[in-house]
Amino acid sequence: MQKKFLLSIGVLLTFLMLMPTTLTMGEEAVKIKVNNEKGGQTRPDLDTAKVELTFTEIENGSANILLNSPERKFFSPTDFPIVEGTELIESTILVENGKAEFDYMFPIRGNYEMTVEVLNENGIVAGTHLLNIHIPENPDEIQNAIVFVGVLFLFGFLVGLILTAKRGRTHAIS
Amino acid sequence: MRYRSLLLTLGFIFLFMLSATVMAHDNNDHGRSIDHHAEVGKLYSFEGKLETTENGPFEIRFHAIRLEDDAQIITMKNTSEDGSYQFAAQFFDGAEHDVTFSLLNPVTEEVIMEKTELVEVLGFDPPMFIKIKTIFFLVMMIVIGMLLGVGVIKLRSRYATKGGANHGI
Question: Does the keyword Membrane apply (chain B) (predicted)?
């Protein structure tokens, strides 16, 4: 019984020790950075972002990229519902000195998935990686949505208040 | 009562017929012929070759602009031995776009030659399911507000009645 307990603790500790290493290795192979050249955060359908990819597996070569848009979420619709959960880019880009970059205007907010297949100078696959890009919603649109929902809520509240008060008075008279 | 339900039905028909999407134009305002017909929601593949007398390798730049506001949609580069290219991208807005393919000298980054093509993008209305869901969410906001308004009056009248009874005792 004691042996089994010690063994399970050993397995758990080994797993915990190895897990961060494998995660770090996976993250370091290709790094992604999304910058708004105008400064500030990248707003969907407004700012053209510079997407920078850094590779450790190769110095020069190319990368096949497949960019997928965020999946459809029931409670949070976006400006372009038809675009949700579709393929946005499927192309090969140039890798020079371990870096590749392209400019892109992201259409909607959410978590984008990018599959990157790294090819060396001879066109041989050096690795395939799945990257995530998070694009936040435009703060102005959030503000407008809050105001709009607030106005609807207030309208409902006032209608409920006035009509019920009126009804109460009518009942009182009759 | 019959008129009310008729008005409600007409109101819903009007709401569902509203088009929020900018549809693509049949006749473009630029006096240019349309080279590509793409659709929102689908990848569109550009394949071709930029003919040149110079020897490769070259760099090929793919650049797309939305014409209605000159927004820079995408710019990416790849290598090419003979000037041939292939880029696939989705246009998310149902508007006209200009795509430019440039052949560059890989050392000096000078443009050897380039061609610009006009892309017409067919836009779609949001799906009916999304329209119904959005209207439901918005109506629910009014309903929640109304329920709260009714609740406030009911609570006030209950307290008023209780207060009156206590005062009587």
Answer: yes
Cβ-Cβ contacts under 8 Å, A153 against chain B: 141-142, 144-145
Mean pLDDT of A131-137: 93
- Do A156 and B143 lie within an 8 Å CB cutoff? yes
**Separation of alpha carbons A101 and B139, rounded Å:** 45
Q: Please, which residues have CB within 8 angstroms of residue A110's CB and are 6 or more apart in sequence?
A: A69, A70, A71, A73, A78, A84, A134, A135
Q: How many residues does chain A have?
A: 174
Q: Which two tokens stand for residue B85?
A: 């290219």
Three-class secondary structure assignment of B4-42:
HHHHHHHHHHHHHHCCCCCCCCCCCCCCCCCCEEEECCC
Nearest to A34 by CA among A139, A137, A132: A132
- The answer to whether position A117 is within a domain reads yes
The ipTM, to two decimals, is: 0.76
Same domain, A156 and A129: no
Q: How many CA atoms lie within 13 A of B147 on its CB side?
A: 6
Q: Which of B76, B93, B143 faces A93 most closely, judged by CB atoms?
A: B76
**Distance between CA B89 and CA B74 in Å, rounded?**
9
| Separation in Å, CA A112 to CA A26, A70, A89 | 18, 5, 11
Distance CA B43, CA B89 (A): 5
Q: Is residue A1 part of a domain?
A: no
Distance CA A77, CA B135 (A): 12
**Dist CA A84 CA A88 (whole Å):** 10
Which neighbouring-strand residues pair with B85? B48
- Half-sphere exposure of residue B88: CA atoms within 13 angstroms, side-chain side: 17
CA distance, residue A71 to nearest chain B CA (Å): 13
Segment-wise mean pLDDT, segments of 10 residues, chain B, 169 residues? 72 66 51 88 92 86 94 93 92 93 91 93 86 91 95 86 54
Task: Say yes or no: B110 and B138 in one domain.
Answer: no
Q: Are residues A69 and A116 in the same domain?
A: yes
